[in-house]
Amino acid sequence: MPSEAAELVFDEATKVYEGREGAAVDHLSLTVPAGEICVLVGPSGGGKTTALKLVNRLIPLTSGYIRIDGKQIGDYDVTELRRSIGYVIQQVGLFPHMTIESNIGTVPKLLGWKRERIRDRVGELLELVGLDPVQDRKRFPAELSGGQRQRVGLARALAANPPLMLMDEPFGAIDPIVRARLHDAFLRLQRELRKTVLFVTHDIDEAIKVGDRIAILRQGGRLAQYDTPEQVLEHPVDEFVADFVGHDRALKALSLKTLGELDLAPASGADGLPRLTADTSQRDALALLVDERRDAILVTDAAGSPLGVATREQMIG
Amino acid sequence: MTGFRAADGGGPVIPNFGQGSSCIRHNGWFCTEWVREHWGDILQPALIQHIELALIAVGIGFAISFLLALVGFRWRLFDAPLGAFTDVLYTIPSIALFQLLVPITGLTVTTIEVALVSYTFFVLYRNIVAGLRGVPAEVLESARGMGFTRMQTFFRVELPLAVPAIVAGLRVAVVATISVATVAAIVIYYGLGGPIFDALGQPDIFRTELVAAGGLAILLALTADALLALTQRALTPWNRVR
User: Among residues B212, B216, B208, which one has the least CA distance to residue B29?
Assistant: First the structure.
């Protein structure tokens, strides 16, 4: 497998567990373009985690195909396949008896990298995920907080520079404040690394925040809609998707748009208005307007010079 | 020599009254003079034999238990029967087991070792299996997901994480073996049980010898336990940080 991002294709992928009625994943077909984050989201019983584990063959396919960079997963040697895919799970699963350094260096060691190369790579990764490359290296997982452990989990998955990452509710067990910080760290990393990522969550807000594309699965592992977050929010294909996305989907859609995207009116004579920068989301701007009982906002650039005026009607309209 | 015990081997104990030291005549709880006099010919050899008995018993017991545990761990089907087998062995009263073995292996150290070894299975088997099974599911899943082979998972993850449970089992096994081994002198005069049986064999129990030999057995058990505890600390630095 090459180390640049790989395209991931599900082609009629189906999983039926023996002795259980109906499929867990039912003829799932979707393509994740190289370098994009695809979020699998849906209610429990939707087969999200099963679909993810089909990719690294922790669960065997019943029928259909999954291809990475055009090659079927069944054609790879299974350990080789797994070593070339980054894997992050909710409970992290760090090795409690190994230092952070050994944990992160696990896959490189399996691949037979030289010791110095592993050491350098670990330092690089610790820095990348926002941990201390000197102090945290020799610590044990039990000495870290939940958020730090998940950062290590992420670093460990990235260690051998895999072209594809599988992330199974990676931030699910972390409190909301730390989780928001991890989202930002993860998205910043992704802008730099451009991995192909398959990301599972049951939280639609998380899906909207991290996904380039969202695949909504319904009971029985059937794909309900596969689209960009904007499309899913603004044009849900049916009642199930609309319901799942939530009655506040209009508000959620606003959180994806910034003030800068609006047609601003000239800023003359707008001195008394509250000011916000152009990269503020329309949802936050609306919240401020409601809060302060105002109808318009003065939009500025990052330096604070006025760009124009945005009105409440423009956002709601 | 002013002692009264039979010279060596498993021969009958022939008391030798009348000409013993003052320690024997007064028979207080502890007489330093007797201990000093007989450290070289009675107590030290008995202590060394006892250490030997325990080391061999726990060593062989551990090796066999480990193999049995691998079978019980790998094939769950065998776990319950193997566990029951070690239970049954453990329930046989030690004196009875020693006597049962004499017709087969004779009045030999082998007889003692066979009995001691079979007692270690009980605690060692269960602890090793429990230790190997105790690895958290998410740790195993991430190992599998990262491309560990079955062997790599065993040697790099399951076995190291089972060390605390295994050493805990070893500690119990060692202390129990040192204790039960004193009873083994019922078969032949060997280990610290020798002087203990001697002392008890006197019409008026010879207290100094009983206390000295019994005390050595206790000290030996405590020392072995402490050494194993230190070994575990050294082997599992990750277990200390919590």
Answer: B208
Is B192 a domain residue?
yes
Domain map (residue ranges) of chain A: 8-253, 258-316
Mean pLDDT of chain A: 91
Looking at this protein, which amino acid is placed at residue B89? L
* Structure-derived torsion over alpha carbons of residues B124, B129, B135, B136, reported in degrees to the nearest 10: -120
Q: Is A46 left (phi over 0), alpha (psi -120 to 50) or beta?
A: alpha
Question: Can you spell out the DSSP letters for B125-190?
Answer: HHHHHHHHHTS-HHHHHHHHHTT--HHHHIIIIIHHHHHHHHHHHHHHHHHHHHHHHTGGGGTSS-
- For residue B140, the tally of other CB atoms under 10 A from its CB is 16
DSSP three-state, residue B122:
helix
Which 8-state DSSP code applies to residue A29?
E
Indicate the CATH number for domain A258-316: 3.10.580.10
pLDDT of residue A267: 78
- Does residue B178 lie in a domain region? yes
d(CA B183, CA B194): 9
CATH of the domain at B188: 1.10.3720.10
What is the CATH code for A8-253? 3.40.50.300
Q: Which helix (H) or strand (E) holds A8?
A: strand A8-15
Q: What are the backbone dihedrals phi and psi of residue A228, each rounded to the nearest 5 degrees, phi first? A: -70, 160
| Domains contained in chain B, number | 1
pLDDT in tens, A257-279: 888 888 888 877 767 888 888 88
Beta carbons of A232 and A214 less than 8 angstroms apart:
yes
Is residue B170 within 8 A of residue B120, CB to CB? The reply is no
Under an 8 Å CB criterion, which residues of B touch A? Answer: 136, 138-149, 152, 156-157, 160-161, 236-239, 241-242
- Asked if the Cβ–Cβ distance from A96 to B161 is below 8 Å, we say yes
Domain limits for position B78: 30-236
Span A104-125, pLDDT tens digits: 999 999 999 999 999 999 999 9
State residue B39 phi and psi, 5-degree precision. -60, -45
Inter-chain touch A94–B142, beta carbons under 8 Å? yes
ipTM of the complex model: 0.83
Chain B within 8 Å of A79 (Cβ-Cβ)? yes
* Confidence check: pLDDT of B19 > 80: no
Q: What is the pTM of this model?
A: 0.83
* DSSP structure class, residue A85: E
